[in-house]
Structure formats: structure tokens, C-alpha cells
Specification:
The protein has helices at 43-49, 103-131, 175-187, 207-216, 241-265, and strands at 4-7, 11-15, 20-24, 63-67, 134-142, 162-165, 197-199, 220-228. Strands 1-2-4-3-5-8-6-7 form an eight-stranded mixed β-sheet, sandwiched between helices. The chain is globular. It contains five helices and eight strands. It is an alpha/beta fold and 268 residues long.
Length: 268
């Protein structure tokens, strides 16, 4: 298998032979030294809103995009105008900075944002040229105990264990791929039971998904896959490592049928 790699302090991009891409753009927790003392939030507060362990799930495929830095420094899943959290309403009511972030430091962040999107565009362009179409597993997590560590969990009726966001794709064209993914993830025996997997209940997908669809049109099928943090304590950040690996296996279980469906929708 041929694989190339773009690696820097902010993100890693690995290129392989498959038309399937795994992304974990919110998995990072790092902050660069020249802004680390400007945060009003402690590291554990930032971790609570990040997507830890999603970088352990992208290994299901040879094409991988992994973010290393915290979304509180620069959110790669938001538009350029919203990529830096300026006000509490940008960040779940949290006061991110002690004072307003200086323009030169904000510009440094945005130069990294621009480079990330340029590198991703190059990678996905190569996949399109090679395969005609490609599928992206856009992996995220979400909180469900926002009333405190000992407070009630959010209503399961409105908070599935896995939310599949399929916003702004050509849903009719990509129905075989989306349905293959949902059916096989739902059918997987997860510690002797089945995961609650539903589409567009909690989230429909973020800017990264929309940008890929807008840039590559019907050549791209991006599913924004949000796992509720049932596999960890979202307040302490402590994971159940067994469940983290079980989720990886559940995702791996979907890859063959998804690629088979892709071959039907977009024969090479």
C-alpha cells in the first residue's frame, strides 16, 4: 500500500489507496505557546467541548485527516468568519479569552486555517481524480450531561447514541451509501446490544461537510458522525478504553458495505 503524509504541528493528513476518508478535526487539545496564557478557560474546560479519541477511530481507513490543536484556538469545522470564538455565544456561553485576542495572533491562527483547507482540497482533488467519487466519515462527539457531572443526561429520544448528519448532500444519489452505513452500524453487536443510530436528529453537519460538498459537488459523500459521549465521563475526560476500541470496531464493520455501495453509485 502506498501512503504519503502531510504532517505539521496543527494537523496530519495521510493519503492512501482507498476512496474512504476518516477525519477527526476536533480531536486535538494542543494550544500554541504564544496564546496559551491568554485563555480564560482551563485545559479541562476546553477538553469538555473537544472530541477526544476520535483520532483513534480514523485508523479504519488509509486516508486520514487529524486535527492536533484545540477548537478553542481555531475551529476547523466553522466558516472563516466564525473559526475563532470571539464571544461567549460562539462557544456554548463560555468566556474563552481573558481579553480580546490580538489581531496579529488571530491572523496567525487564520493563516493555519487557510493552509489546512488548501491541503485538504489538494488531497480530496487527488482522490476525485483517482476514484471519481469518495466518502468521508467526519467523526465527532457530543455532550449529553450539560447540567453537571451528577446531573441528568439529556433525553435519549432527542439524543441518539450516534447521530448521522447528512445535511446538504445529494441525499437521493447517496442513499445506498448512507443506508449501508446506518444499517451496518446499527446491526453491529456492540457489547451484546445494538447502538441507537439515527439520521439528522441532533445535528445535520457542520461547515467542513458543507465546504466539501460545495467544493466537490456530487463527487463527495460526507457523513458527519457524532457519537454521544456515552463511552466516557464527559466532565472528567476519563474514557472507557474498551468502549473507545469497540466504537472503532463498529465503524470498521461498516467500511466494506459502504465501499460496495460506493462502487454501485459511482462505478470507476
Amino acid at each position: 500500500m502506498t501512503q504519503t503524509k502531510t504532517d505539521n504541528a496543527y494537523y496530519t493528513i495521510k493519503r492512501g489507496e482507498s476512496p474512504l476518508v476518516g477525519t477527526a478535526i476536533h480531536s486535538g487539545h494542543d494550544v500554541r505557546p504564544n496564546i496559551s496564557n491568554l485563555f480564560a478557560l482551563a485545559a479541562e474546560e476546553r477538553l469538555r467541548e473537544e472530541d477526544p479519541h476520535t483520532d483513534e477511530w480514523v485508523v479504519i481507513t488509509d486516508n486520514q485527516i487529524i486535527g492536533h490543536n484545540s477548537r478553542f484556538e481555531l475551529d476547523l469545522n466553522r466558516s472563516p468568519e466564525k473559526a475563532i470564538y470571539r464571544q461567549p455565544e460562539d462557544a456554548w456561553g463560555l468566556e474563552v479569552w481573558q481579553d480580546e485576542l490580538p489581531d496579529d495572533l488571530a491572523q496567525e491562527s487564520m493563516s493555519r486555517y487557510d493552509q489546512f483547507y488548501a491541503d485538504v482540497k489538494q488531497m480530496l482533488t487527488e482522490l476525485k481524480e483517482k476514484h471519481g467519487c469518495f466518502v468521508v466519515y467526519d467523526l465527532h462527539t457530543y455532550n449529553h450531561k450539560r447540567e453537571g457531572a451528577h446531573g441528568p443526561a439529556a433525553d435519549p429520544a432527542e439524543n441518539p447514541e450516534v447521530n448521522i448528519g447528512t445535511g446538504n448532500m445529494n441525499r437521493e444519489k447517496w442513499a445506498p451509501v448512507v443506508e449501508a452505513f446506518i444499517e451496518n452500524l446499527s446491526a453491529y453487536s456492540y457489547e451484546g446490544r445494538h447502538l441507537d443510530v439515527r439520521e439528522n436528529v441532533k445535528f445535520k453537519g457542520g461547515y467542513f461537510m458543507r465546504w466539501i460538498h460545495d467544493t466537490f459537488g456530487d463527487s463527495a459523500c460526507v457523513m458527519s458522525i457524532e457519537f454521544k459521549k456515552f463511552f466516557m465521563d464527559e466532565w472528567s475526560g476519563t474514557p472507557d478504553h474498551g468502549q473507545v476500541q469497540e466504537i472503532r470496531k463498529a465503524l470498521e464493520h461498516t467500511t466494506r458495505p459502504v465501499l460496495q455501495a460506493l462502487a454501485q453509485v459511482c462505478p470507476s
